[in-house]
Amino acid sequence: MTAKPAAAAARATVYGYPRQGPNRELKKAIEGYWKGRVTADALRATAAELRRGTWQQLAEAGVHDVPTGDFSYYDHVLDTSVMVGAVPGRHRAAVDADALDGYFAMARGTQDVAPLEMTKWFDTNYHYLVPELGPDTVFTADSAKQVAECAEALALGYTPRPVLVGPITYLLLAKPAPGVAADFEPLTLLDRLLPVYAEVLADLRAAGAEWVQLDEPALVQDRTPAELNAAARAYRELGGLADRPKLLVASYFGRLGEALTVLAKAPVDGLALDFTESGAGNLDDLAAAGGLPGKRLVAGVVNGRNIWINDYEKSLATLGTLLGLADRVDVSASCSLLHVPLDADAERDIDPQIARWLAFARQKTEEIVVLARGLAGGTDTIAAELAANRADLASRAGAALTRDPAVRARTAAVTDADGRRSQPYTERSAAQRAHLGLPLLPTTTIGSFPQTTELRTARADLRAGRIDEAGYEERIKDEIREVLSFQEKAGLDVLVHGEPERNDMVQYFAEQLTGYLATQHGWVQSYGTRYVRPPVLAGDISRPEPMTVRWTTYAQSLTARPVKGMLTGPVTMLAWSFVRDDQPLGDTARQVALALRDEVNDLEASGTSVIQVDEPALRETLPLRAAEHAAYLEWATESFRLATSGVRPDTQIHTHMCYAEFGDIVQAIDDLDADVISLEAARSHMQVARELAAHGYPREAGPGVYDIHSPRIPSTEEAAALLRKGLEAIPASRLWVNPDCGLKTRGWPETRASLENLVAAAREIRAELPTEAA
């Protein structure tokens, strides 16, 4: 059957696009600027060229209005703070002296000034800089960046659609500034903020913007009546402005729910909604609300967060239904394409048949254009694309890669007992203390040590054939010896081998597990200039052979102190991969957990007494609606216990989490039944320690005292002050001393100094403790 053409031609568009460039040119330029090798003008020229390239690619593909303003040197929420003048007092002098250096000081800090706190952008692995606000905050408009990029696009002949973080989401993401009462609600500043947005909108209108996109993803979360009323007030005021461009309010990552009615009634000109699996309820809600008469609907039917090809027939059916619910229906991805790699055609090492299952940002743009063409002109106009799409979907569904009978049989045989330690924590703790003989406030690191130029060169040399496997392994051994020697001299109590052989905490394991595919160029921004290559979880998972035992055992042979085995947990292996979408996530997590269980047991058998299984993504992957939390946390915590519960009582299981809001999952952290947990805490001034104490968390914990995402070196006094705060919440008998996260991205000089100060702080505090503290 031929679909009926739309009354008005549907257009293709995107919410946003990856920033880094085909070869991560932006990362290289920014890091060159930080090191003094790239001038500010050269950095700006690189950024402008990347923007031009993005707009050109989008326009040539058939996208009508291109997003502007979504480009960022570091983070779009930080850009919003600059736009509204919400610069913390401690950074004001730096910003006034040099806007670019001040911007990076807010993001990274300086030796003398701490950066803004960083946390996860909703349920993604992207990190944003948290706005710091208080009752004395004065907002002032600075639309220079937005106006300049809008003007750039216009000058090049493109139709720009500036993208702003909406005022409700901005305030809901903010936190009370240091020194402000913890119960201060930034949303109370809305009436002070709206005139600033009005001024920015007027500036953009004057610059030639016909439409402006205001992103409000916070509205897909559970919102109180007061928050919904604030949203209604905000868009009633902004929509009622006489001098403004047309307003497109965009939501993504899920179902708007009650907020849909609020926005549908608001005097705005269009809504952008997520109609992929996570937001399928938006279709029913939109129909129940009577549609969007008189408004533009941007339909996010192409998944902007995963890399599998779109099902054209399914998307066209959704789009066909939407035609009767709005005056104009345009086609887009479900969210910004920031969350996927740039171009699947760059992957030369993936089987061509499998490669046809993949769609990165460039391919998703092409899918959006095809769907818009089919919606506007009928399915006959895209008959060839539909046929190829059907064939590719069938190829994936029938591929042997996706199903392993042995893995499925083992998973089906799992019992409740497999996910429980043989003894309760109190008994295990006594056995571990006797076995390990650690002091009060034991010191350790999270796992990785600096990935030096020499290490990256060695990996490149191995790939290029300039050195053989034996030569490469000698370099790795040399690095492990150096890392162990430093830790012993510094006085750390539980050591790590430094992970010199590992490229990434997920990719390293994915490359050794069946069912995973690795990319060569699939870079995705995690924060700032930190990019990761999420592997593709395409089929059933198993572990053919040990993955970490050899290097961990080698490291342990060099020291009498315990060396931690280091693994990445099942939830994080899913969250930081592009996961298969053809079975429930819990089923996939169980497969990964069983593969890791084999590794944990082999590490213990080799003599490893401390094993850390990192789960930094546990909070990140929490569904955005509370009604879905329990089901997720059940399979998430079960998969961790399944991976770790096969060891003896005297083997100490650690886990690690970082850069997320932990307060609402403390019970789940408890349910993991790990013996020790380390968490990010330096930027939040030990907030998580207080949250653990309020819950009555009974196990050992190491809230971080060294912020590794900043180049500044914390002094002994600073680390000791944080430890004292930690001791207010956690008794010395259960408190560990460690950095916030791994040290992979730091340099050796700052790492040495920071860890030496950390150990000195622990010794200082130990000396202050009464003898009965033990």
Give an overview in words.
The chain is α/β, with parallel strands linked by helices and 774 residues long. It contains 28 helices and 20 strands. A 7-stranded parallel beta sheet has the order 1-5-7-8-9-10-11. The longest helix has 22 residues, at 40-61. Residues 1-7 have low confidence and may be disordered. This is 5-methyltetrahydropteroyltriglutamate--homocysteine methyltransferase. L-homocysteine binds at residues 446-448, 499, 614. Pathway: Amino-acid biosynthesis; L-methionine biosynthesis via de novo pathway; L-methionine from L-homocysteine (MetE route): step 1/1.
Protein topology:
Elements: H1 25-34, H2 40-61, E1 65-68, H3 76-83, H4 89-97, H5 99-108, E2 118-120, E3 127-129, E4 132-133, H6 144-155, E5 159-165, H7 167-173, E6 175-176, H8 190-207, E7 211-215, H9 225-239, E8 246-250, H10 258-265, E9 270-274, H11 281-288, E10 292-302, H12 312-322, E11 326-333, H13 352-355, H14 361-377, H15 383-397, H16 405-412, H17 425-436, H18 453-464, H19 469-490, H20 507-510, E12 514-517, E13 524-527, E14 530-532, E15 536-542, H21 549-556, E16 564-568, H22 570-575, H23 585-605, E17 610-614, H24 629-644, E18 652-657, H25 666-671, E19 676-679, H26 687-695, E20 700-703, H27 716-727, H28 748-768
Parallel strand pairs: 1-5, 4-6, 5-7, 7-8, 8-9, 9-10, 10-11, 16-17, 17-18, 18-19, 19-20
Antiparallel strand pairs: 2-3, 12-15, 13-14
